[in-house]
Amino acid sequence: MQSTILNHDNTPNLPGYATAFIDAVTNLPAEDRLPVLELAVDHYRAGQPIPPLMGYMDEANFWADMAARDELKAYLWACWSHLNAADQAAFLAHIERRAAA
Q: Distance between CA 44 and CA 68 in Å, rounded?
């Protein structure tokens, strides 16, 4: 936690709740800091995709904008592995066309 943000003099516009959070984490034993931060990140992740309200692609893009990298990778692999061979081939062709553009 060696960061300039821990020095509140360098961040005068930091909201009070952010300062309180930083202080709370800083005051934890060093070995407990990462597990607490991981719990906080997990709590605020996008979570699982919800049924489409705006259409599948719009909802998927909305969710992906908020998802963590690990979530994106997990859902990508899960979705890919559940596609049949024809859909996988069509997806790869689509990606190749976009890469060539």
A: 10
The CA-to-CA distance between both ends of the chain, in Å, stands at 43
pLDDT of res. 57: 83
**Residue 64 carries which side chain, given as an amino acid letter?**
A
Determine the residue type at 81. S
* Cβ neighbours of residue 61 closer than 8 Å, sequence gap 6 or more: none
This prediction has a pTM of 0.49
Degrees to nearest 5, angle at CA 64 with 59 and 66: 105
Q: Predicted confidence band at 65 (pLDDT cuts at 50, 70, 90)?
A: very high
Confidence of residue 9 (pLDDT cuts 50, 70, 90): low
| Tokens representing residue 14 in the block | 């930091």
According to DSSP H, which parts of 1-101 are helical?
16-26, 30-44, 56-66, 69-82, 85-100
